[in-house]
Design a protein that fits this description.
transmembrane helix, membrane, Prohibitin, alpha+beta, 3-stranded antiparallel sheet, Band_7, 272 residues, 23% strand, Tetrahydropterin Synthase, Chain A, Band_7/SPFH_dom_sf
Length: 272
């Protein structure tokens, strides 16, 4: 049997295997957990934004391009210099946690590309921080309205990222640093305001206490007036007799002289 007639077939198979092995990285792909992917079809339809590929193994034509996105939650830290309402320079340290919206990475890729963190996320955070802090004074940002400032920055950043296919998980303003001279002036002013409030509180407390005493004194005076008006001589004499009778019942030895006291009231003498 002449095996030479099978030689071309064997050569073709060997070449096919070599080509397949060489192109395996362009044909076979695996999407790991925490990843999503989209395909760009070079010769038909371009970027497929609607069909997002989930984790697992897949096959594609070697001329098509696979774009893999990490969709796990990520964190970035930004330090920036901003201006307050009066043009005073502040240094702000911000931390942002976010991730791309899983089923919208095709649109994210079309608009911003694989480097969307630098082209979208960071600029939007910086813009929101600058816009919001530009509406407040340094004193408000540093003390009285810090919560409102943080809430406004979070709201504007979240809205902007959501419109561009990213989901903001949290935004934290870790620190707001002012020039030492300005910070000292603000802290001194706040201390003086607190002392003034404390002094005002003491005045109000003393005023309330004085008013309470005045009302109590007036009530006591009215009560005494009522009592004095009701104490007639006859009533006093009757109360004296009742008291004398009660004392006479005491086991202690005593001498009762009837009619010898003032106004004929009994007198009690002696006793232990």
């Amino acid at each position: 049997m002449d095996n030479r007639k099978f030689l071309p077939v064997i050569i073709v198979i060997i070449i096919a295997v070599v080509v397949l092995l060489a192109l395996s990285s362009s044909i076979f792909y695996t999407i790991d957990a925490g990843e999503r992917a989209i395909i760009f079809y070079k010769f038909g339809g371009g970027l497929d934004k609607e069909n997002v590929i989930k984790q697992g193994f897949g096959i594609k034509a070697p001329w098509n391009t696979l774009h893999v996105y990490e969709v796990r939650e990520r964190s970035i830290e930004e330090k920036m210099d901003v201006l307050d309402k009066n043009g005073l320079s502040l240094n702000v340290d911000v931390t942002l946690r976010f991730n791309p919206i899983y089923d919208q990475i095709g649109y994210l890729h079309e608009n911003f590309g694989i480097n969307y963190v630098n082209s979208l996320v960071i600029p939007e955070v910086r813009s929101a921080v600058r816009q919001v802090m530009g509406r407040f004074t340094a004193e408000e940002i540093y003390s009285t309205k810090r919560g409102e400032v943080e809430a406004s920055i979070k709201l504007e950043t979240e809205k902007s990222l959501k419109e561009n296919n990213c989901d903001m998980k949290a935004l934290l303003i870790r620190s707001i640093n002012l020039p030492d001279q300005i910070r000292a002036a603000i802290e001194n002013k706040l201390q003086q305001e607190q002392e003034a409030l404390a002094y005002q509180f003491r005045l109000e407390k003393e005023k309330s206490e004085a008013e309470r005493k005045r009302i109590a004194a007036e009530g006591e005076a009215v009560a005494n007036k009522i009592i004095n008006n009701s104490l007639t001589p006859e009533l006093l004499k009757m109360r004296g007799i009742e008291a004398t009778l009660e004392l006479s019942k005491s086991p202690n030895s005593k001498v009762v002289v009837v009619g010898s006291g003032k106004d004929g009231m009994p007198l009690i003498l002696g006793g232990n």
